[in-house]
Amino acid sequence: MAKLYHLFLLTILVVIIPTLVHANVKEQDSYWENLLPYINDTYWREKAAKAEETNNIAYTPDPYAVSENLTSVVSEMIVGESTGRRKLAGKKLRRGHPCIATNPIDRCWRCDPNWATNRKKLADCAQGFGRKAIGGKAGPIYVVTEPSDNDMVNPRPGTLRYAVTRNGPLWIIFARSMVIRLSQELIMTSDKTIDGRGTTVVIAKGAGITIQFINNVIIHGIKIFDITVGNGGIIRDAENHFGLRTKSDGDAISIFGSSNIWIDHVSLRNCRDGLIDVIMGSTAITISNGHFTDHNEVMLFGATDGYDGDKKMQVTLAFNHFGKRLIQRMPRVRYGFVHVLNNDYTHWEMYAIGGSKNPTIISEGNRFIAPNNPHAKEITKRGASEGEWKNWQWKSINDVYMNGAFFRQTGPLLTNRPFSKKDMIKARPGTHVGRLTRFSGSLRCRPGKAC
User: Which residues participate in catalysis according to the annotation?
Assistant: First the structure.
């Protein structure tokens, strides 16, 4: 297994990587040339081999079944609301004010006033491809008490870096609101939850978060912005290991060869590279309820045409708001299967969804509001000739197009899958997107009250 991985890395070095308009750092040959000496030691080869086995288990042979399940839940909520059988609002609070949980993920936990004493209930709420991510549910709660990040090899107890590099499962919370400037990339271990509820946790003006060759991670309720490139050096990546790292990329969150990942209610903007990158065979991922603004290349799913291991990549994008001053890549996909469900695309300058190398993209119930630029009305962009992309499975189902937006569909008709006629017609999900994404981004939660 390790030999195959080594061969893959060597192969990447001779690949000429095509791009859509501009290259993410991971699409450049120099990235892999610089990375190879650091990732090709025995420790990382063993981690890569183990992660590949875990990722293969996390991969769903029939991705349509997963996307259909999430669609059905949303449909039942919306249809029930319109008929009076079921409401999107949750439990009543004091003085008759309702807790409004407008989508099925939020409905699972947000209207519980005791969420702060039952934090781990959140782990039961993921849906889509990342639905099996339970993070640190099996471990104790760890409280981050200070924002410092000064020692990369022996991080101080009470810091976020100390918490995420422990070997066992941990549910990580914060003693108070804080701004954390990461001196170098924050390299996580498996079975961790970063839970920012009840405080305002900001990671800014330093390096970002790296999820590499691990599994079972939840990141919830934090803000990340103004992320820069870390210089690299000796950095701890586990309780029992530290080693030399090259420069980090400048991503807010980088998911590299990992699986069972859920990113929920994050607010991300203005990073040096991508906001969220999913590469190197990562799979079983849900990105939900996020709010994204002020960025060029928002999301990269699959970094190189030369690595078909990303065929196993499966990502759910649900209930996110792609907001002001975004340019492109929401997401940009190579290979893989991406279910883009009930997102609100209110701004883009070039295009919203792009890809190459025959990815499957099912766009369902999204709202697309095109820019005023008459040359940027098309939602989709393909990095290939028409002879290649005309058979790619890119479908738009019950999407809402505004201000001249249009989605260029390709591929054979979907028959008997993934969505039933009931899901497509009665749910009318695209018209409800404003409500479904109403509470996107990091929430202001206070203990003792519904969030």
Answer: 329
